[in-house]
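Re-running the complex after MR caught last week's input typo. The corrected sequence lines follow. Everything else is unchanged.
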Amino acid sequence: MLQRPSQAPGVFAAVGLPPVVWLFALFLAPLAVIWTYSFGENRTLVDIAITGSWGNYARALKPLYLAILLKSMGFAALTTVLCFILGLPVALAITFAGRRAKLLLLVAIMLPFWTNLLIRTYALMAILRTEGLINAGLGALWGLVPGLPPFEPLPLINNNFAVVVGLVYVHLPFMVLPLYAALDRLDRSLIEASLDLGAGHLATLWRVVVPLALPGIVSGIIITFIPALGAYLTPDLLGGTNSQMIANVIERQFRSANDWPFGAALSFLLMYLTFAALMVQAIISRRSAEREAAR
Amino acid sequence: MKGPLDYLARWPLRLWLAMVGAFLYLPLLALVVFSFNDSRRITVWRGFSLRWYAELFDDGELVAAFGNSLVIAAASTIISLILGTLAALLLWRFRFAGKAPLEALLGLPIVVPEICLGVAFLVFFTAIVPWPTELPWPLNLGAIIIAHATFSFSFVALVVRARLASFDGALAEAARDLGAGEWLIFRDIMVPHMVPGLVAGALLAFTLSLDDFVITFFTSGPDTITFPIKVYSMVRFSVTPAVNAASTLLILLTAGLTALALWLQGADIAKQAA
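Corrected-run output:
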């Protein structure tokens, strides 16, 4: 039975005050400050006047910045699709594996997830660089064939390609784990029935497994999309001048351009996009829960 | 015999798994292998050497950065463990006005993009509550510790709350009937039950702190370099096997912590099954 605060006021205060005060003073307050700044203007370098103007948001939606915002969403969407294509078979394999193989595969998926993001990005840089492993390997193969012109290294880094590869590399576990969690709960007899009744494996996957696992698939998609959208390090280290994402633009406003109000507006736009994505997930999962209950 | 659902036994899926595995692990493997390379280049193998590791330990700034990272991780783990456990207990035990909004608020640090939290802390600790710059070590790390504790205590609360769900309330009631006070019940009954959750939460908070680059990047000053910040500037500056060696050490540390967490949880599951 849950207690009311009046039943143990001392405990309620002792347990409740520290985390609540911390959340308000050190989490909400900093966010509230930049939210206020997003309606302000730079007077001098350090003096920011809160004028209540929407100018920063209007500027953020001008073509130059809107293009970067859309590009970030495009990168995140492409990353999510690629992670889904790569990850669904992996999640299926984990679901239907034996006990030992299942544990092994789960650990194998989790381990890179626990490895430092910076290190993983650096590892990818070393592979993709002009003098990196892929180009060195291709160059060696190229040299084996006599009479070819000198090997031109492929442009694998400092471009959009590298950013998407990096985002997929980093976010794949985000997709696989919720997919696995959803598939693991499925009623296997339904899949077996579909196969018995003559549907192929792909038809079963598409017409039985995917619809049944839809809430899990949606949360996998959202959980991958959100961090990919706000990615800073991947475009910073793997991208070129043309593959800046929204987080890089925000960073520049705060660290080099010194336009805090504009940076604040951009980061709140990113935050609103994140919340919108979460709301989509909440709506879909509530709908499927209702459908479940109605059955 | 292979059943219809024995997907793991089918070759297209095995091939797919091998490809995904190679994609995930080859870059990390190459990184580790070339940290032992006896050459400045990180693509041509010249023979085994530990010289890059020796160079790391000679780099005073890097060693100091590593020390900073460990202190930050330890301090923010302790803070987030306390706050997270209290929050979990609050939500587990009480029903009160504003509980649902508080739960949503508690989940917020997990979903807010790192960059947004990073710039919020940057502004907060420079313009609103300036963190003094001339503080003696380790107090100068305070701003980073606060930032890390703020984003990791929600994770701790989540883990501990999941553990509390399996707590048998009758135990606490029996203890109360027999005259135990709140503190005694907490210390002798609740805490022992929560231990696996506390350990898992602590390891999670520690790894999150060690891993964090973006938020630290915005909260750190010129004299508070952490390990990821230092590695970042090394990567920006030049790609040498010294970075590989530093990365390998950090990978070993996190892999060790992960193995510890899995082992402890495994032991816990085994105990429940027995």
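None of the earlier attempt is carried over here. The two ends of chain B are 31 Å apart (CA to CA). Residues 95 and 217 of chain B are 39 Å apart (CA to CA).
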